[in-house]
Each structure stands twice: as C-alpha cells, then as structure tokens.
C-alpha cells in the first residue's frame, strides 16, 4: 500500500510509520505538513495518490486548547476536513485518530461506539468536530490515555516525578483504559488493510484510575507504589483549565463483535515500556 501518515512525528504517528514499514509510507510530520493549511494538504495528498491516509495530526494540548479555541478548531476540525477532502479526491481511505474526550464522562458504564458524544472540553469539541468531517466509508478510531516511547506521557511523568519527590499524588476519581502506542499502531494498520468503515474504540484492556495506573508504573519500575496517595480531581493544585471525563472507559465493542482480537491488558506493555525507559 501507499500510505500517508499525518502527525508522523508524534507519539502515535512515529509508531504508525513503523507499523507500515513494509508499505510505501510518506511520513508527514507537523513541521512538514500543517493540516490546517488546505492548499498544503491538497498538494501533499493528491500529488502521491495514496491508498490510505492515517490521520494522526492533532493539537492534543488539552488545557491549552481551552485558551486558544481557534487553534484547536483549525488543527483538529478544519484540518481533518482538509485531509478528508484531499483523500476523497485521491480516492484514499482515511483512518482518523480520535479520543475519549468526545464523551463527557458522566455515563456509569463503559462507552460503546454507538453512544452519543457530548464533549465537555474545547479539545473534545474540536476532535468531535473532526469526527463529523469523516466520510461514511472511512474509519474513526477513538483511543484513551496514550503512552509510549516517544513524546511526553503519563509513564514518563510518573518516572520523572518519582526521581524528584518522595511522595506523589494522583487522582482516583477519573477512570479509563491506558493505551500503548506500540500496540495501537499495528491495530490501525489492521483496520486500514481491511478498509473497515465506521467507529472503533481501540485501547489496551484493563480499567483503572490515574492513581492506580501511577502505582502500577512505580511497581513496574521496582519502586514502592505506596509512595503514591490518591486525591480527588477537586484537590488538584492548581486546578486544570479543561474538564476531564470522570469515566473515560471505552468498551472495544466494535472490534470484539467484528471478531478482531483486542489489545492485551495494559500491564504487559507497561512493563515493557518501563524497561525500555529505565535501562
């Protein structure tokens, strides 16, 4: 296949480029392609006529999106419109990477793909805007709590803070599924090869709170998880500008019902990532 990957320099994008290594990959990192620039996107995609566009390009700074909504809309929503328009002209299938933030987190049970989005943050609204730009024959993949070898993420933050402070605090009233980019990327390729349409939730398995996840990170590093204490979101100092969904648990129902094997429990890739980051 000939594949264009937007956001190819990001945490997921770099893993996606690796996952398509045996294909003809055009890695369009942000410094090479501004998805908010329609002319640039049209030229980049229509000039190579890819079979698939994996659209990872996004502005994911959740709190910063609150103070700069125009940038959030331009990159996450309008940028996705540009990518979809160019792909449509090139006859390419698009796989758009979205987020658990399209939900407000008030549901008691895990969210399935057919639940109605109701984003509470600017980041979530702009990503939901991007979802609405995707053609029916293409795919939307929602994921959550992404960690990996590249870029900033929760695992790296916990390991860094553990080296700087004897005691740490993390919230125990936000729950979700950690997802590891090295597992997510091959699943994106699986969906792209099959050109499956519709919405898919793709996460590693295993529900936890941020507090429980941070404790698991320390345990994987051979440190004492008792160094971490649970706090509520209301106790965070300073408070975060963007509201977080209390329930970010995504049921991978569409994958399961389609008969596609789900990603493994998060503890397995977590242990591997910690070994990589600490060796």
Question: How would you summarize what this structure contains?
Answer:
With about 280 residues, this protein is an alpha/beta fold. The protein has a single domain, classed as NAD(P)-binding Rossmann-like Domain (Rossmann fold, 3-Layer(aba) Sandwich).
Q: How would you explain this protein's 3D organization?
A:
With 279 residues, this protein is α/β, with parallel strands linked by helices. Helix 1 (11-19) crosses helix 7, helix 2 (38-46) packs parallel to helix 4 (69-90) and helix 4 (69-90) runs parallel beside helix 5. It is built from ten helices and 13 strands. It has helices at residues 11-19, 38-46, 62-67, 69-90, 122-131, 154-164, 181-194, 210-220, 253-258, 267-278, and strands spanning 2-6, 24-28, 52-55, 93-99, 139-143, 146-147, 168-171, 175-176, 179-180, 198-201, 208-209, 228-231, 247-248. The chain has a six-stranded parallel β-sheet with strand order 2-1-3-4-5-10, with helices on both faces. A three-stranded mixed β-sheet has the order 11-8-13. The mean pLDDT is 97. 39% of the residues lie in helices and 17% in strands. The two termini are 36 Å apart. The longest helix is centred in the N-terminal third of the chain and has 22 residues, at 69-90. The chain has a single domain (2-151, 177-205, 248-266), classed as 3-Layer(aba) Sandwich (Rossmann fold), CATH 3.40.50. The radius of gyration is 18 Å and the shape is globular. Helix 5 (122-131) links the parallel strand 4 (93-99) and strand 5 (139-143).
